[in-house]
Design a protein that fits this description.
heterodimer, A: 263 residues, mainly alpha, two-stranded antiparallel ribbon, 2 strands, B: 304 residues, alpha/beta, Rossmann fold, 2 domains, four-stranded antiparallel beta sheet
Chain lengths: 263, 304
């Protein structure tokens, strides 16, 4: 039982997913507010504050207004923050402080199912946040309708990727304060350098190669394409990358969590 | 012959170099209230965790309901309930939701889950707390809810890991009352506890563990007769003359320096003589109990 056993994964995991949904609904007003207002703040700040400094952005052979370039990236970063925070801080609290996992593991639920449920839940939350953002972005003209709706399933996939790596960190982190480390060394650089606030064409080749390894870059490319119909990379490449990333870190998450919990 | 609910044969649990459980064999029969006693670190919780398939066994055989824990852990877990030592209730959910959500983990359908939750709320007198948040519950209420949750899937075996630790006497008696009721209904239960009085009054049979091994096993009454005595005299300010007296007569005793504990049969003459000759400071005459057995078998030194 101390090795990862994928054969123990069944649809039973949906019950743990459902447990998280119930708790999310309890504080739904707060949960809804952030994704609705966050893009508005960014767009106002960058639109008003930056418009004097930056005229436009040259991206994939097109000249784009700066806020139009940046808005789809906000969708991707929100997806990242939502899912990563869910399987790091929130999952750690459930595991360590609330002992929710100990309770679940005294039922017919397998550890694998429970961890998969946490990851799928985090992805669901990310997709929900993105759906809410679109409610704001589509009427403002920053995302095409109905094409931008495809950002929702894409956010689910991206959410799986970030939730998987978040869960992996939860499996190895000694204490909750230490999450600062992956956030500072991994999430923040990714947030800044994934073609979010400036296009890759402006940075040196070596930096561009590093960026290609960032899952956020691939997610930003996909959301930008679905929001405004322009992209500089290839959709198949982005999707394959995210799927592989999810599979690898999903497995590592199961492995580290099993080592951590099963004694 | 009736099948054993739990049967362990030489089970071992190692954590690296440390052996927590070192070849433990015992059986629990259907309908039995079985106790597992021992000082902290004796291996009780490790045994329990192996029984419900949380900790993999290092070696040995472990069957629950006649099924091998290694291959049938899911089936076994669906037929038992566990009330863990820690509070593992969901603080984000209400009392009612805690029960309903937990029932779903056992694949009990929604309607049935609601009905079961209702029964349990009733049984544990939690009905008027159904909408309360778990964080608002007192220790006693939280423990009752945890018991209710352990029973949500109508288990055939209930595992209780220190169910009354940290409760006030009123709450503790209420928990005991519920456990007695469950015993009457024929539920098989496995209990660990540090309260010897609890074990003595609840358990049909028990075993005492220390350092990962079983050191004694039997009915509470028999264990008292075997390792302590029907009657116990505690004497403060024991002197040399008492020591000689006890040794000469071959009376079973523990010498704690300033205090001596004598284990005797309820013999009026002997008690009178001791009272007359040796009770200078303080003497306590009482019946022997499981605590005597426990301390005699596992020693009086502090454990860490």
């Amino acid at each position: 039982m101390s090795r990862v056993d994928l054969s123990t994964i069944s649809l039973r995991f949906r019950h743990v997913w459902f447990r998280n949904l119930i708790t999310y609904r309890r504080i739904w007003r707060v949960n809804f507010l952030v994704p609705l207002l966050e893009p508005a703040f960014y767009i106002i700040a960058f639109g008003l504050g930056f418009s004097g400094l930056i005229a436009g952005v040259s991206y994939a052979g097109r000249e784009l207004e700066y806020t139009r370039f940046m808005a789809p990236a906000l969708v991707a970063t929100a997806c990242m923050w939502n899912s990563f925070f869910e399987t790091t801080y929130s999952s750690f609290v459930r595991m360590y402080y609330q002992k929710t996992y100990d309770g679940i593991l005294a039922t017919p639920m397998s550890l694998e199912e429970m961890i998969i449920a946490e990851i799928v839940w985090a992805a669901t939350k990310a997709a929900a946040a993105v759906a809410l953002m679109l409610v704001m972005l589509i009427p403002l003209g920053y995302a095409n309708f109905p094409g931008a709706l495809l950002c929702i399933p894409v956010a689910f996939l991206g959410g799986l990727a970030f939730a998987a790596i978040g869960m992996f960190f939860t499996g190895i982190i000694p204490s909750i304060d230490m999450f600062n480390l992956p956030i500072f060394l991994f999430i923040t650089p990714m947030f800044l350098f994934s073609g979010t606030f400036f296009p890759l064409s402006g940075i040196p080749d070596w930096a561009r190669v590093i960026t290609l390894f960032f899952p956020l870059y691939h997610l930003v490319e996909l959301t930008r394409f679905f929001c405004i119909g322009v992209m500089e990379s290839h959709m198949v490449f982005n999707l394959v990358y995210l799927v592989l990333f999810t599979a690898i870190f999903g497995y590592l998450a199961l492995l580290t969590m099993k080592r951590r919990l099963i004694r | 012959m009736r099948m054993h609910v739990i049967e362990t044969r030489q089970i071992v649990k190692r954590f690296g170099r440390f052996t927590a459980v070192d070849g433990v064999s015992f059986q629990v029969k259907a309908g039995e209230f079985f106790g597992l006693l021992g000082p902290n670190g004796a291996g009780k919780t490790s045994v329990i965790r192996m029984i419900y398939g949380f900790s993999p066994i290092t070696s040995g055989e472990l069957e629950v309901f006649g099924l091998d824990i290694r291959s049938h852990w899911r089936k076994i877990r669906s037929r038992l309930g566990v009330c863990q030592q820690d509070n593992t209730l969901d603080p984000d959910l209400t009392v009612e939701q805690n029960l309903q959500v937990f029932a779903r983990y056992f694949e009990i359908d929604r309607g049935r889950a609601r009905a079961r939750a209702e029964e349990q709320l009733e049984f544990f007198a939690l009905t008027n707390k159904r909408k309360a948040k778990v964080m608002e519950l007192s220790g006693g209420l939280a423990r009752r809810l945890q018991l209710a949750r352990a029973l949500i899937a109508e288990p055939e075996l209930l595992i209780l890991d220190e169910p009354t630790t940290g409760l006030d006497p009123q709450s503790r008696y209420q928990v005991w009352d519920r456990l007695f009721e469950l015993k009457k209904r024929g539920l098989t239960m496995l209990l660990t506890t540090h309260y010897m009085h609890e074990a003595e009054s609840l358990c049909d049979r028990l075993l005492i563990m220390d350092h990962g091994k079983i050191i004694s096993e039997g009915r509470p009454r028999n264990l008292i007769a075997e390792h302590a005595a029907e009657s116990v005299i505690e004497i403060d300010g024991a002197g040399e003359d008492l020591r000689h007296y006890v040794r000469d007569r071959g009376i079973r005793h523990d010498d704690l320096g300033e205090r001596m504990i004598l284990y005797t049969t309820a013999n009026g003459e002997l008690e009178n003589e001791i009272r007359r000759r040796f009770c200078v400071e303080a003497c306590l005459f009482r019946a022997g109990n499981l605590e005597d057995v426990f301390l005699r078998l596992t020693g009086r030194e502090l454990r860490e």
